[in-house]
Amino acid sequence: MAAPSVSTSPHSAIRSTLPAGVRWPDISFRWLALLAAVTILVLIALVGWELYQGSRLAIGHFGPRFLVNSTWNPVTDEYGAWPFIFGTLVSSLIALVIAVPLGVATALYLTELAPVRLRQPVVMIVEMLAAVPSVIFGLWGIFVLIPWLRDHLFVWLKETLGFLPLFRGTIYGVSMLAAGIIVAIMILPIITSVSREILRSVPNLQREAAYALGATHWEVMRIAVLSYARRGLFGAAVLGLGRALGETMAVTMVIGNRPDISASLFAPGYTLASVIANEFTEATTDLYLSSLFELGLVLVAVTIVVNVVAQLMLRSLAGSGTGKVR
Amino acid sequence: MADLSQAKPVVTRPVASAPPMAPRTPAAIAKEPMEVAFDISGFSLWYGANQALFDVGIQIPARAVTAIIGPSGCGKSTFLRALNRMHELTPGTRIAGRLRLFGEDLYAAAVDPAVVRRRVGMVFQKSNPFPTMSIAENVLVGLRLNGVNDRALLRQRLEESLRMAALWDEVKDILGRPGSSLSGGQQQRLCIARALAVQPEVLLMDEPCSALDPLATAKIEELINDLRASFTVIIVTHNMQQAARVSNRTAFFYLGRLVEYDETSTIFMNPSNPQTEAYVAGRFG
Amino acid sequence: MTTPSQFQPTARRHAWRKFTSGAMAGLMLVCAVAVMAPIFLVLFFLVREGASSLDWSFFTQLPKPSGELGGGMANAIVGTFTLLAMAAAIGVPVGVMGGVYLAEYGSDRANSWIRFTADVLNGVPSIVWGMVVYGLLVVPFKTFSAYAGGVALGFMMIPLVMRTTEEVLVLVPQGYREAALALGIPRWKTITVIVVRTALKGIVTGILIAMARVAGETAPLLFTALGNNFWSHRLSEPISALPLQIFTYATSAYDDWHRQAWAGALVLMGMILSLNILVRVLSRDRSFK
């Protein structure tokens, strides 16, 4: 839309070599941008809707019992999610138990101890780990990690800690523990980098105050840094959990894919994501496919809840506010 | 879009078309009959619930320099930004009252703020040449993005604008260099050239020298003095000597209100309001 | 309670504290080394197992039927590039425009919801995208297709690109926007020519990071692109991709396929690392004076 009044000005008549203002491109550009931003909301709705549509049959057929039933039998067309929920939780927990201490310790090393020259290269190496595709971890897991675990680490664990039910039973190689270890490696980068951000945001005043009391290096970290950053580090762990729960390919390749529930970490297991990956294209009946969709629904529900919790924990720390023009 | 630029005859600087005149000293201008550029009355402005300007009424002369002074937070920058609707970039602002430029209501519903800003250019406190553009591109960006593609015209406007900004001789051989490679004072003059290139009627300057050294400041003041002949210049400054040196008229703002507005000599020598007197005497602010 | 007079215990305690501090520092160093070790182990085996299988036929031939020796992954390599191009065609325009909206328009409240949702979407397991697109495109059109695979990867790219675009746009100083608008330049041109151009390097970096991320994805392709042992001549047919081929070969029973899985993994890793190196080069200086 032009602004006719402007051309009546005595000055603009001789001065303006410019065309009058045209407003429709501005308005359409804004709408286009809004449309793109709203796509995000459409996508999350799409995720919920498609998964719900797909799983309606199973939800109607099995009801809430689906979640606690531990039978998964395509031959009799009876399906229950419990072995997969169990496998997902156990493998993710193993991953967290390994990755959180390692990641936080590395972050501490990077922010508090490492020589400044060394920090950037170490961060880069850790970030490279995040670039490795899941399927390559799986390949490496099958042919490198599993044989080593089977012949060395697992044997040693069984000999030394065999009094615990966790470390008893036959060693196959493919196992819950192997999956947990692979996932731990995969979530190390995110836990390390988020923890590092958190630790870097600890005010120096905290450290100086502790040093001034005569604390040693470690005491400063423990008293001033870690306790100050506790909440944020917990958020980092929860974020890592979110990643671990949904990890698919590498887990599928090393966990053994058996819907059994066993106390032993050496036993094969199965996770929500990996049963979907393995059986989705082979689902012979509608109920079978629908049950897999319902597993997907469970997986999404859990990961979204975990991610929301993580985001809230991390966000409350970093007050965000951006100035903008209109 | 582009055809319009060709449709209109290319007019050279109004400097040439304006009648030849004797050197216009501030005192001489003050005595001429005044042509009004901005005619403002009952103008108020709110940021959300906070009122920043109260019922401002002022007539700003054309082809003269008007200085706006006052302590920080007095609303002088807000007032300046309202003159080309830049305050609309801050969410939640609202205005009331009348604001006319050469008789036209700049806030009428049909008026595109972009068109207002072409007529009323602005130079900022911190020089901000676009970092991805060369000196020449910086000067011409306003024309190019407004649809002017005529190369001869662009070439002509480039030289004219840089000459008006007293920068041509310094940069004519390095037009392809990045704008950010210039010194601070040169960058500010580049920004003035950029604003002049779209041939505005009014040039608003928001403390244009506050980040510059005295030598660069002197150059800009000299430049403002030259611009007086063909432009309406309105300058916000916290430097009272500067206001006294460059302006014909001075407006003193305090707490969002226009306290006093008169010829510069009167404001500084013989103010009628005690607050003005206290401020120009340096007793507060 | 120690009193100043008990000199001996204090000194011993002091030594113990110093020892603990040193031990913990050592432990942290060990942890850092442990965290860095896997990438070297992965790369070492990729090169050792994969390099010997990389030959001309790997890049030019189709896979051989199971049991036969030889063959290559030519179709999977082309398929990966095809899928990436389709993903970028969806993810880049939507992501960049959405980032523009978040950084330049919109109310803070609505934007924080969109931002939050985008972060949550980034955490949705990639296999879920496969299921969603299966329901959205595969079921209605009754066929697995390259389109479906590209859409699944494109959906994953949108929130990634949107967030990084927004983050670099808000770093562009406000003065540039004001200067451009004060010249009477329309808002959309101010954004595209001044703001986006100033932040272009950062935006491109974000796009490359997102592409590197989806390039290695397998799970979203399992029930969309499906995989194909031959050339796909139409985008409405199933298409192969390197990650899919690696998965199939790695979980097979044939030694020759294992060999090729390593080779494929080496090529895929090479592609992704080159993208990452490009990102590092690009982002070496990202300053807006």
Describe this structure in words.
The complex is a heterotrimer of chains A (326), B (285) and C (289). By secondary structure, chain A is an all-alpha fold. Chain A has one domain: MetI-like (MetI-like fold, Orthogonal Bundle). Chain A is built from 11 helices and 2 strands. Chain A has a two-stranded antiparallel sheet. In chain A, a hairpin with a 4-residue loop joins strand 1 (72-73) and strand 2. In chain A, helix 3 runs antiparallel to helix 8 and helix 8 (217-246) packs antiparallel against helix 11 (286-317). The model of chain A is unreliable at 1-17 and 319-326 (pLDDT under 50). Chain B is built from 13 helices and 10 strands. Chain B has helices at 2-7, 14-17, 26-31, 76-83, 113-119, 135-145, 151-164, 168-171, 184-197, 214-227, 240-246, 264-269, 274-280, and strands at 36-47, 50-61, 65-69, 93-101, 104-105, 120-123, 202-206, 232-236, 249-254, 257-263. In chain B, the strands form 2 sheets. A 6-stranded mixed beta sheet of chain B has the order 6-7-8-3-9-10, with helices on both faces. With 289 residues, chain C is mainly α. In chain C, 72% of the residues lie in helices and 0% in strands. The model of chain C has no long low-confidence stretch (mean pLDDT 91). The chains are: A mainly alpha (326), B alpha/beta (285), C mainly alpha (289). At the A-C interface, helix 2, helix 3, helix 4, helix 5 and helix 6 of A face helix 1, helix 3, helix 4, helix 5 and helix 6 of C.
Features:
heterotrimer, A: 326 residues, mainly alpha, disordered N terminus, disordered C terminus, C: mainly alpha, MetI-like fold, 2 domains, 72% helix
Summarize the structure.
The complex is a heterotrimer of chains A (326), B (285) and C (289). Chain A is mostly helical and 326 residues long.
